Amino acid sequence: QVPLVESGGGLVQPGGSLRLSCAASGTDFSIAVMGWYRQIPGKQRESVATITAKGATNYADSVKGRFTISRDNAKSTMYLQMNRLKPEDTAVYFCNVDKGYRNDWGQGTQVTVSS
Q: Which of 15, 21, 74, 114 is the most buried (most CB within 10 A)?
């Protein structure tokens, strides 16, 4: 079983919205730090948003005010609501769950913002 499974990626027009989901397996979801990262071809992977077990969030400056990270512990799922998308948001988005003793990554989901 894949520890993390992302979904919700796809093609969207500039200014549009997309919601990514990350379904986690295993234990200790509620105490893990989770985050979304993205990879643009030829560039370093960057952190998009993170959320701690206590709900504290952090966002990259480039997405502040447009993206919202959240988690539903009952469903062991994390979300990334992306609004007012821009072409520069185009990337492969990865889900990460850091339990301290174990660090899991999803397979990635492609987000393409284009008209």
A: 21
Q: How many angstroms separate the CA atoms of 30 and 104, rounded?
A: 14
Q: What is the structure's pLDDT at 85?
A: 98
Q: How far apart are the first and last CA of the chain?
A: 36
> How far lies 18's CA from each of 14, 84, 107, in Å?
11, 9, 18
Give the residue among 29, 15, 32, 37 at the shortest CA–CA distance from 95: 37
Tokens of 84: 């007012």
Report which residue type is found at 70: S
Q: What is the DSSP letter of 47?
A: E
63 Cβ contact list (under 8 Å, min separation 6): 48, 49, 82, 89
Instruction: Give the per-residue pLDDT at 2.
Output: 60
**What pLDDT shows up at residue 27?**
76
Written as six digits, the tokens of 59 are: 């966002």
pLDDT for residue 61 is more than 60 = yes
